[in-house]
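Example record

One chain of 190 residues, shown exactly as stored in the release files.
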Amino acid sequence: MQEVLPEGGVIRKLWIGETEKYRDHVLRLDPESRRNRFAGGVSDEFVRNYVDLTSGLDAVVHGFFIGHVMRGAAEVRPLGSEFPREAEAAISVEKAWQSHGVGSALLRRTLLAARNRGFRLLHMACLADNRRMQQLARKFDAELTFDFESVVGEVESSRPTPLSLMRELMSDSHSFATAMLDLQTRILRT
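Predicted structure tokens for this chain:
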């Protein structure tokens, strides 16, 4: 499925060595977007530690890029050994790129990655006043459970198929090529 993104926008998987792109993106989030992403106010130090931890937890991170700058991210990570077929997803998009289809495209890519890793249930938690995330979860048929201050959306996933695996492989191939071109461009500029 072709994603409709702002002109020049690309969604691709982050590769080893690109942790700083994710960290810089999260640090650029405005206070409301950061609060929505982490379900509360967090410091820059928390963000740095969180991103460093993410790179070692079997998380899959996709980024939305304009040029060489990451402006949005979606992360899927297993919920641990107690729930081997369940994962958690989180999405963040910088303010200027919200309401442009970026969150939908990131979640679509995240659902594909979760499906192909055998996760049958994907959890998305957000604050009760984060209507944007709730709307996005509903768009993908998530079942929402409301609590006093939070909402949890759950999306059931299908089993991986040769076609879903091929879709991710093709996306990853494109992602890798794009990342290598980005790296080459940065090297040539210095």
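Notes: The longest helix spans residues 162-189.
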